[in-house]
Amino acid sequence: MATLTRRPNLEPGHQALVTFAGLPALTLSPTLRIDGSAEINEAVFHIPRDPEGGPVDAIRLDQPVRLKGPVGRGQYRPGGGRLVLVAAGAGFGPIWAIARRPATSSPPARWRWRSAPGRPRPLHAREPGLAALHRRRPDRALRRPRRPAAAGRALRPLTAHLPSLRATDVVHVAGDIATVGAVQVLAAAVGARCYPIVLD
Hints:
Largest sheet: 4 strands, parallel
Strand order of the largest sheet: 7-6-8-9
Number of strands: 9
Structural class: alpha/beta
Strand content: 15-25%
């Protein structure tokens, strides 16, 4: 989380060039805390940590930061059809920001939630912010599991857990290039609009 003197005009899903003093610029998506909160002068980021160490590990609590943006074209776009959200890894950050926009509409959107296998419990059951989105039925948002598959059982690709897409769907996908590309192919096959956010 960074405290800003002036916040760029960013829509949910937009990316920004974020420069921490003394470190190379990173392309990140400002998002919200898991409970859905963020102050007007804050930029919240969900950043994956490199187990082998990386620039993110050098960030200090009092380190100056600069944001420049927006960059990218994956921002939230309202549409008349279903909103299908797909996240892999740190792609959860921008997808979470997008998910909150229709959830705070009036009347609130109805959600179906489908998690990829390998998690002990569905994500929405463990996080209070996600539980607020969960309505009557546990698909619109997906997240790649971090736990390895049980012995002798291989995990299917994240795309195997998508609902059957329709031409009227609006698809937002964030994550690694392989996941994003696979979802784009599925969306193109039915003529659905797809807005990708590829993370470094």
